[in-house]
Design goal:
With about 220 residues, the protein is an alpha/beta fold. The protein has two domains: about 1-140, Rossmann fold; about 145-205, Arc Repressor Mutant, subunit A (Orthogonal Bundle). The protein contains eleven helices and six strands. Strands 2-1-3-4-5-6 form a six-stranded parallel sheet, with helices on both faces. Strand 4, helix 4 (about 85-95) and strand 5 form a beta-alpha-beta unit. The longest helix is centred in the N-terminal third of the chain and has 14 residues, at about 10-25.
C-alpha cells in the first residue's frame, strides 16, 4: 500500500510521513510540498491513502482532492487545515474526502485516530469540525440554506473589495442586477451595511486572504 503526504510546511510534512510510515502498514510513503507536484505524483503512481493540507501553493488542497477523486473515486483522503470555518467545512463535507482534522487540535492522538479510521475506509472528523458541521445542519438560517447561488457569488465578490460594476463584469451581469442580489442577500442575512457584510463573509470563511488558497471556482449549492 502507498501513501502520499501533501504539506508545504517541511517539519509538519516530515512528522506526518514519519507517523504514517512507522505506525501504519504502508510499503511506501511519498511527499509533496505543493499541489501541482502532488498531482504529478498521483498521476504517476497508484496511491491508497492521501493526507493533504488545504492551504497549498500552486493548487489548493480542495481542488487537488477533487481531481484525485475524479480520477480514482475510491481514494481515501484525509484533509488537514487551520481553516475550520463554516464555508471550509461546508465545501470539505461535499467534496468526497473521508476526513478532516483541524490543525489547532492536531495532537498525535488525534492523528493516530484519523489515520487509522480514514486509511481503513471510515469517516473521521475532529471535534472542532464536528461542532461546526452540527451547528450548520441545525441552523435554519445557515448561509447556504437562505442564499441563492448568485447572491452568494455577489456577496463573496463584494467582500473581496469589488464594486458593483467590477462584480457585474466578473459574473457577466449588469451592475444593477448585482445591486439587487446584494440587497436581497443582506436582507436575508439581516445585515444593514456593507462593513457588516464584509465582516460576516470573513467570519464564515467566504473570503480567504492567505496565499495558496483559491476557491473562486468552487461552486455553491444547497445540497
Amino acid at each position: 500500500m502507498k501513501a502520499l503526504i501533501v504539506e508545504d510546511e517541511e517539519l509538519v510534512r516530515e512528522l506526518l510521513a514519519s507517523v504514517v510510515g512507522r505506525e501504519f502498514e504502508f510499503d511506501q510513503v511519498e511527499e509533496a510540498s505543493d499541489g501541482e507536484a502532488a498531482w504529478d505524483l498521483f498521476q504517476a503512481e497508484a496511491f491508497d491513502f492521501v493526507v493533504l493540507d488545504l492551504m497549498l501553493p500552486k493548487m489548493d488542497g480542495l481542488s487537488l482532492a477533487r481531481r484525485m477523486l475524479e480520477q480514482k473515486p475510491d481514494i481515501r483522503i484525509l484533509v488537514l487545515s487551520s481553516e475550520c470555518d463554516d464555508y471550509t467545512m461546508r465545501e470539505v463535507t461535499r467534496s468526497g474526502v473521508f476526513g478532516f482534522v483541524d490543525k489547532k487540535e492536531m495532537t498525535l492522538e488525534v492523528l493516530f485516530a484519523a489515520f487509522n479510521e480514514v486509511s481503513s475506509g471510515e469517516v473521521y472528523y475532529s471535534s472542532n469540525a464536528q461542532e461546526v458541521i452540527t451547528r450548520m445542519w441545525e441552523d435554519p438560517e445557515a448561509y447556504y440554506k437562505v442564499l441563492s447561488d448568485r447572491e452568494f457569488q455577489v456577496l463573496r465578490l463584494i467582500a473581496q473589495g469589488m464594486d458593483l460594476e467590477a462584480s457585474g463584469q466578473e459574473l457577466g451581469i449588469s451592475k444593477f442586477t448585482v445591486r439587487r442580489h446584494k440587497h436581497n442577500a443582506m436582507k436575508k442575512l439581516n445585515i444593514s451595511d456593507e462593513a457588516s457584510l464584509v465582516r460576516f463573509a470573513l467570519e464564515k470563511g467566504f473570503v480567504k486572504f492567505k496565499g495558496g488558497l483559491d476557491w473562486t471556482e468552487v461552486s455553491h449549492r444547497k445540497h
